[in-house]
Specification:
It is built from 12 helices and 17 strands. The chain is an alpha/beta fold. The strands form 3 sheets. Strands 8-7-9-6-10-11 form a 6-stranded mixed sheet, with helices on both faces. Strands 12-13-17-14-15-16 form a 6-stranded mixed sheet, with helices on both faces.
Amino acid sequence: MPTTLGAPLDGRRIWLVGIGGAGLSAYGLLAHAWGAEVGGWDRNETPYLAPVRQAGIEVRISPEPEVPGGWEIVVSSAYPGVAGRPRAELLAELVSLRPSIVVAGAHGKTTTAAMIAFVLREMGHDPSWIVGGEVPQLGANAGAGEGWLVVEGDESDRSVASLRPRIAVVTNVDLDHHATFGSRAEVEELFERWLADVPEVVRGSELEPVDVRLAVPGEHNRRNAAVALAALELAGVPPADVRAALARFEGVGRRFELVGEADGIRVYDDYAHNPPKLAAALETARAQTEGRVLVLFQPHLYSRTRHLARELGRELAAADAVAVTEVYRAREQPIDGVSGKLVVDAICDTRPGFAPGWTPRLEDGARFVARRARAGDLVLTAGAGDVDRAARLILAELGARGTGSSS
């Protein structure tokens, strides 16, 4: 990931605890490109580590955190017990080193940030970017160029308030992080305090969906594109050029991503992990098939499941068949009485007589939906944990029928 901008982090040695995550892997790639010596540890292999290793960054995988001496230690929020700088401080430093566009909001920030970076690169503006997902057209979740730096801002730990970009974007506001905020009003207050210190501001709530024919489906993506268009206008890109480039944007990994097809059944994967995202994913799925829609859902975080089980169940009840797994804990400790079964019960309350599957293990959930799917159906795996690996399990089950082939 070469850059000719010099090396603002030259001489620094930065060790990332949790380097396999979408965020820290990207921070590491950019810090390395800007002159720092970078290394890191993670508990598990992840897809984000391939470009990290390709950049020549040392990665250690082991059961317990490894923190060598002689390094600045930066720690993912997934490992709060490890001493070091929070990853938010490193991001704030990176943002301070370049004219930046920060995209925040409850829904759509990864896709919107990717759209902005893609258009800037297509138009020859040579951006740097840090995006919380895999973007095939950009080649990696991070890149270093000579122009704008495009990053996502995270409200889940209030760290977005420490970022000082030239342009700030809020796609939308919702209460999605119940361990941090007590109400939607608290989220709104955080964003308004942050925006007050930024020269140029884009609010998605003030915009209509863009009228461009996009390669990515769904009304939500037309809204994401409208926000990207507004931000890019502020960055000096002519609107006609933006519209032409947006039409070529093909999306972000795990955002209604087609994983494969077997036995006449298409299998998609989506990051949808809260009620609005599930509603958008299911609406998009309905528009993509004349058959049935079957969903394997993995709840994400105990706090979110406790507060939103009823709303999650209401959205999932719109599918033709549903399996729900146990909660993906991520950074949280279990909460007594909270499990994926709460979502199953909420589905049953919403749709009496419907029989969702309570399948705590992903493998069992994959079998549940695969055995009920038939030619012409669409299967969707959804959640922010490791449910994406279930898509391949479902394709294997479908392929084993011997009446079709997977791709």
